[in-house]
Amino acid sequence: MSELRADRGVCIGAGMCVMTDSAVFDQDDDGIVVLLEGAPEVDEKVRAAVDACPSGALSITES
Amino acid sequence: MTETARTRPDEGTAEAASETALAGRSVEELPLHMQRAGFDPAPELRAIREGEGVRKVRTPFGLEAWLVTRWPDVREVLGDATTFSNAWQPHRRMPGLPGMPERSPEELARMRAGNLLAFDPPEHTRLRRMLTPEFTGRRMQRLEPRVRQIVDQHLDAMAQAGPPADLVADFALPVPSLVICELLGVPYEDRAEFQRRSAKLLDLSRPTDERLRAGEEQREYMTSLVARERAHPGDGLLGMLVREHGADLTTDELVGIANLLLIAGHETTSNMLGLGTLALMDHPDQLALVRDDPEAIGPAVEELLRWLSIVHSGTFKSVTRPTEIAGHAIAEGDLVMLSIPAANRDPALVEDPERLDVRRGALGHVAFGHGVHHCLGAPLARMEMRIAFPALLQRFPDLRPASEDRRFRSFNVVYGMESLPVAWGGA
Ligand code: HEM
Ligand code: HEM
Ligand code: SF4
């Protein structure tokens, strides 16, 4: 199982994740990342978003 | 380049060199990280990337720094603000800005305040968090109609005056400039004066003392604007900052933030518009795609950002612990600078990197930087370009260069065009 995590303390609100996959990522009013679903499927697009995130706030843990 | 006012690189001290405006020097004398061949990074930068990966070079201020050229290494440096620190910036000048006078420590501290690029986390995080809400995709959507209006007004004026036009002076420069005024909340009646001062400040062909005076004037203006916003917070970004963080931010910080946004938001988008239009005119099939297919512009903007890489280097970093880049030992206290154009043309990033291909839609370029200092204005810049390029090309479908002469702007922190004469229609 791959699990997507978003660390809101690290996020700088660059919005790259939302630009890459707006079905999974959103930004709150402060511009900080929120996951639209609790445990989204980790597909190509999600991996691309994790790569694109400039701050390192996004990670995928494999278990 | 004329033979007058040429300065030999080995002539005089670092201070003497920094006293001389870069304008008037020949291109070979540019610092290596700023050297280009038209749209491309200088061949020597590629040679470093393919060879040793990093090389120690002399900066314009006589300092030595490691120049990092490979895409994975550039990402690594930008992604590690603990090892590669920005916090040393206050004592030294920015790359490519010669002729700055000595300043007292108090003055430097005042000028540093609010400049996100001059701090590491957590000081950086504090400022960045206050600004982030103003640059979300949603916030940009609200600005969009106004940006369209500004774009259309300038296209109307160009059409009315008829060809030829200077795309830089008539379109690429004034559009982002007005957008920044709008965003910051510069009152309408101040804008003409504000734009005149900014243009002067950013025009490196003017004498340094004149530009410094314009800079001082702009700072004074910002200070008075911040005072007004403190008294009556408006709807712009400054008003928002005063309302939400007024107690937490000093006046110097507010002025610094406003100045950083002004400078970073002004030069960059405008150079992308000028240089990008020329690149598209050189590739007519790709121009047609951007003009005719509404889906094409998103990936096209990313490819133009990658291929043009207008910011040569970004901030210099100071190394806080012994480390290694591309197999070279880097000592604590060393300086590191990046070649963004070389990194963005690295085959490790995309296949066939030297080719402009607006269809590729690849992610991961470092034209906006990476890591905690990743461009704050990226959503705004993207939105401006996504509106401006198609609007320009739809208005003038047969847009073409009106002169053989290509006036690239080499002597600046940001690459671009000095001017770009264009024609359309039967003219
Ligand atoms: C196409 C246009 C643009 C490009 C290529 C660009 C590029 C960059 C780059 C490379 C950096 C990182 C510098 C470094 O790490 O040393 C940066 C940072 C920054 N940019 Fe942009 N930029 C653009 C447009 C804008 C606009 C429109 C604004 C503002 C309205 C802006 C505001 C900023 C700010 C405030 C920072 C500093 C962020 C921080 O330190 O956290 N930029 N930009
Ligand atoms: C990348 C790291 C950057 C740092 C550390 C930085 C910092 C600064 C500072 C401290 C100043 C004030 C200089 C002074 O008046 O003494 C300044 C001015 C300026 N910056 Fe940057 N900035 C950065 C990025 C940019 C970018 C991305 C652009 C282009 C958009 C840019 C263009 C300029 C220009 C044109 C000035 C005007 C300087 C003048 O003549 O007063 N800088 N910058
Ligand atoms: S890309 Fe990263 S930094 Fe940007 S909003 Fe998403 S999580 Fe935050």
Short summary of the structure?
Chain A is α+β, with helices and mostly antiparallel strands. Helix content of chain A is 22%, strand content 25%.
- The CATH topology of chain A is Alpha-Beta Plaits
How many domains in all of chain A? 1
Largest interface: A-B, 19 and 22 residues
Shape of chain A: globular
How would the global form of chain B be characterised?
Answer: globular
List keywords for this structure.
heterodimer; A: 63 residues; alpha+beta; Alpha-Beta Plaits; two-stranded antiparallel sheet; globular; B: 427 residues; Cytochrome p450; five-stranded mixed sheet; three-stranded antiparallel sheet; 16 helices; 48% helix; disordered N terminus; binds protoporphyrin IX containing FE; binds iron/sulfur cluster
Protein model, in words:
- The complex is a heterodimer of chains A (63) and B (427).
- Chain A is of the alpha+beta class and 63 residues long.
- Chain A has a single domain (2-62), classed as 2-Layer Sandwich (Alpha-Beta Plaits).
- Helices cover 22% and strands 25% of the residues of chain A.
- In chain A, strands 1-4 form a two-stranded antiparallel ribbon.
- The longest helix of chain A is centred in the C-terminal third of the chain and has 9 residues, at 44-52.
- Chain A starts with a strand and ends with a strand.
- The model of chain A has no long low-confidence stretch (mean pLDDT 88).
- Chain B is α+β, with helices and mostly antiparallel strands and 427 residues long.
- Chain B has a domain at 14-41 and 99-310 and 371-423: Cytochrome P450 (Cytochrome p450, Orthogonal Bundle).
- Helices cover 48% and strands 10% of the residues of chain B.
- Chain B contains 16 helices and 14 strands.
- In chain B, the strands form five sheets. Chain B has a five-stranded mixed beta sheet, with helices on one face. A three-stranded antiparallel beta sheet of chain B has the order 6-14-11.
- In chain B, α6 (137-161) packs parallel to α16, α10 packs across α12 (251-282) and α13 (284-292) crosses α16 (378-395).
- Chain B is globular, with a radius of gyration of 21 Å.
- At the A-B interface, α1 and α2 of A face α5 of B.
